[in-house]
Design a protein that fits this description.
Layout: H1 3-31, H2 37-40, E1 48-49, E2 55-59, H3 64-69, H4 76-87, E3 96-99, H5 113-130, E4 134-138, H6 140-146, H7 153-156, E5 160-163, E6 166-171, H8 174-177, H9 181-200
Parallel strand pairs: 2-3, 2-4, 4-6
Antiparallel strand pairs: 1-3, 5-6
Helix pairs in contact: 1-5
The protein binds uracil (URA) and iron/sulfur cluster.
């Protein structure tokens, strides 16, 4: 066996190992009872997609459809997300899609700070294991939880941020864009910007925007 084949095998072993840890983590999420959202959920929604994706999308929390299927972004907002991905040549299978909280807040209310705090270790672990090149925050909850609690989405959408070892790209939530044509156009424009960043490999360069 040449050295190259050997290192390829080692890479695969590394990926396999993380895959197993991720699947274990997702099972833990499905059984989690760490916050009261576990009492009202049907299914917890750990996330779905490519476990070695370069890009991770983070929404707010499961809605009714997601709760009944155990999968993220499978309702109306999810269809729009799928269309936006396909507009830049990506499919759901190319990326990983998850949420800040993994169980549905009743009536789709905003997740409480306490619920976010309880659930965040799961997202942190997903990020640590997958090490995506970029985290796209969908809506204000993901933006404020992951980047900075003082940021306003209308001011920073379409911008890149660097925090710790990770880069973030702020976007409106597709649910907000569903019934507002203007926001939909803005979101579509931000997806074009996202494609440009991915094509240019700008993500590997030093920070372009730091808070
Ligand atoms: N909205 C979200 O934030 N996440 C989903 O999974 C679905 C709708
Ligand atoms: Fe556990 Fe998160 Fe679900 Fe709360 S929202 S029960 S912390 S998985």
């Amino acid at each position: 066996m040449t050295g190259k084949e050997n290192s390829h095998t080692l890479d695969q072993q590394g990926a396999e190992c993380h895959r197993a840890q991720l699947l274990e983590l997702h099972d833990a999420v499905r059984q989690c009872r760490k916050c009261p959202l576990s009492e009202t959920r049907t299914y917890a929604v750990p996330g779905e997609g490519n476990l070695s994706a370069r890009v991770m999308f983070v929404g707010e929390g499961p809605g009714a459809q997601e709760d009944s299927e155990g999968k993220p972004f499978v309702g109306a907002a999810g269809r729009l997300l799928g269309e936006l991905l396909s507009s830049i040549g990506l499919t759901r299978g190319d990326v990983f899609i998850t949420n800040v909280v993994k169980c549905r807040p009743p009536g789709n209310r905003d997740p409480l700070d306490e619920e976010i705090a309880r659930c965040l270790p799961y997202l942190r672990k997903q990020v640590l294991l997958m090490k995506p090149l970029l985290l796209c925050t969908l809506g204000k909850h993901a933006l404020r939880t992951l980047v900075d609690s003082n940021l306003s989405i209308s001011a920073v959408h379409g911008k890149l941020f660097t925090k710790g070892n990770y880069r973030f790209f702020a976007m409106y939530h597709p649910a907000a864009a569903l019934y507002q044509q203007k926001l939909k156009e803005t979101l579509a424009g931000d997806f074009i910007t996202l494609r440009k960043h991915l094509e240019d490999n700008e993500l590997l360069l030093p920070p372009v925007h730091q808070q």
